[in-house]
Amino acid sequence: MDYRILGETLPAVEVRLQPGEAMYTQSGGMAWMSDGFHLDSNVKGGLMKGLGRMFAGESLFMATYTAERPDSIIAFASTVPGKIMTVDVSKTSLICQKGAFLCAQPTVEISTVLTKKISAGFFGGEGFILQKIQGSGMAFLEVDGDLVEKELAPGESIKVDTGNVFAFEPSVSYEIEMVKGVKNIFFGGEGLFLTKLTGPGKIYMQTMNIAEFTGRIAQGIPSSK
Description:
With 225 residues, this protein is mainly β. It is built from four helices and 19 strands. The chain has a six-stranded antiparallel sheet, with no helix packed on it. The protein has a six-stranded antiparallel sheet with strand order 11-12-9-16-19-14. β1 (2-6) and β2 form a beta hairpin. It is globular.
C-alpha cells in the first residue's frame, strides 16, 4: 500500500492499492476512487462494536473498499479544516477523541473507551467517549486545526481543554477535572471541565476546538423574527 497526503486546508489521503488490498472507512467517507473496487458495507466487528462506534462519533456501518485491479486509487477527505495524522498501528496504539477516525487497513481495530468517572464524562465533552485504535497496519486520523505533539515524562502532567485533546498513548493516564471557583466557572470564558493527562507517553493536541468553532459560526447566523 502506497499513500500520499493532498492539500493543506482541507486535506485528503490518496491510497494506491494492489489486488486484494483494502481500506475501510465510515459510511460516506470516500471522496473519489478509480474503477476496479469492490464495496462491502457491514457492521464491522458486530452489532455491539457498531453501536460503540456510533457513541464515539462514527457510523454504525463501515464501508470496506477492496482493490480488484493493479494500482487502484482511492481517496478519503477530511471534513473540517485541519491535518491528517498517519499512524502505524503496528508500532503504537492510540486513544483518540471521538470522530478522529478517517480510514484504515482492515487489520486496524476501533473500540470505544469511556472515562472512569461517568458523571464527569457526561459534562466533560470529548472526555466522556474516546476511541482506541489498535491492531496492525496503517490508520489515518482527522485532526481539527493543527497538531501539537508533546512527550510527557513519568509523573509529568498537563491540563488541556477537553475539546483540544486529540490523542495519547495508552501509557498516559487521564482524568476529567472540574474548573475550581464559581467566578472562574461563570466568568473565566473556558469550559467547565479540563482533561488532566499524566505521563509517561506521547500526547497529541489539536489547535481547533470544534465545539467552540461551530459555536462561533452559530453566533453569526441571523435569527428569524
